Amino acid sequence: MNIQKIYLRDIVFSGLHGATGIELEVAQRFQVDVTITFNALPSIRSEKLEDTIDYFDVIRCVRSHIENNYRKHILLETLVDEITDDIARTFPCHKIRLTIQKLDVPFKPQIGTTKNYFTGARVPISSFEYIHQQLVTQGAVSIPFLTHEERGRLVDEAKKLEYIKQPEQAFGGIVREEVSSCSVKDEGTPFFEIADRVARFVTELYAVTHQGVPRFPKPHVALQKYDAGSIGITPHRDEKKYGLAIAIIPLIGKGDLSICDDRAGTNPKKQDTTPGNLILLRAPGYAGMHVRPMHVVNNILEERIVLGVRFPTNE
């Protein structure tokens, strides 16, 4: 990597943000300073603008939040946090330092933050403890992972594949499912690139939460396709042969995935199945635990395709 920084100083836009009534009615000026740390190696090699972070795009991103009169914020802290995370979701950043200062009030108050990000998912590393706690206590967590463009490329590739309809009775007849699947063997496909990113993400999660560094075997990568109106998969647990964490990434379509207490689907806790999100399910070995979460897939409203990444424990 070749780590470099972009410095943007004294960016000024007007917006309606503040705690007093007049601040929400009369626009005031906000000055923004941004420092972005990123890997410049791809652009150094190609000398193409699309391989780097265009600072005009960063400025447009900042402007869209400050001048958004339909989403007003009482606290600068909230505005700073929202802009920082949006920049990270849009651009491949390792670290962002951002400050906002009010220019039209006494003492010119200023709020700033510095966040480190895992660039494979645009996820603040400060969120890793929350992710860990969700996996330990709930057995699952869902976070934004793919950009719109990345998801679009994967959807195009997924639609080219041939899917095999699975038997309706599974796991010895105790589970019903209506789903077709396609196992991906070609490691040159973009699906394996995502699998590698998932592995790196979980490695970072282990490191941040002081669990050591896991050994990742070659993953099993597969896609599942549900037709509109499918029953999905009744409550079940993933097989014991997969460890560390089960990764599910919805690529297209609407449907629910819920953690539940038993095979009757009691006490369902819906996960965020927004296409492009990474849903992690706890698997044997995570944090020394061996209880696999029961979960159900249902309410398939339209054709739905998901990418699954699983790490065998016997390889």
Q: How does this model look, in words?
A:
This protein has 315 residues and is an alpha+beta fold. Helices cover 23% and strands 35% of the residues. The chain is built from six helices and 18 strands. A seven-stranded antiparallel β-sheet has the order 6-16-13-18-11-10-7. A five-stranded antiparallel β-sheet has the order 1-2-3-4-5, with helices on one face. Helix 2 packs antiparallel against helix 3.
Along the chain, the helix and strand elements come as: EEHHHEEEHEHEEEEHEEEEEEEE
Q: State the major sheet.
A: 7 strands, antiparallel
Oligomer: single chain
Strand arrangement within the widest β-sheet reads 6-16-13-18-11-10-7
As a percent range, the share of strand residues is 35-45%
Question: Which of globular, elongated, flat, extended, rod-shaped describes the shape?
Answer: elongated
How many alpha or pi helices?
6
Estimated helix fraction: 10-25%
Structural class: alpha+beta
Nearest-angstrom radius of gyration?
A: 22 Å
Task: List unreliable stretches of 5+ residues.
Answer: none
In short:
This protein is α+β, with helices and mostly antiparallel strands. It has helices at about 40-45, 55-65, 75-90, 130-135, 150-160, 190-210, and strands at about 5-15, 30-40, 95-100, 110-120, 125, 140-145, 165, 170, 175, 180-185, 220-225, 235, 240-250, 255-260, 270, 275-280, 295-300, 305-310.
Give the helices and strands, then pairings.
Blueprint: E1 3-15, E2 28-39, H1 41-46, H2 55-66, H3 76-90, E3 93-102, E4 110-118, E5 123-124, H4 128-137, E6 140-144, H5 148-158, E7 164-165, E8 169-170, E9 175-176, E10 180-184, H6 190-208, E11 220-226, E12 233-236, E13 242-252, E14 256-260, E15 269-270, E16 277-282, E17 294-298, E18 304-312
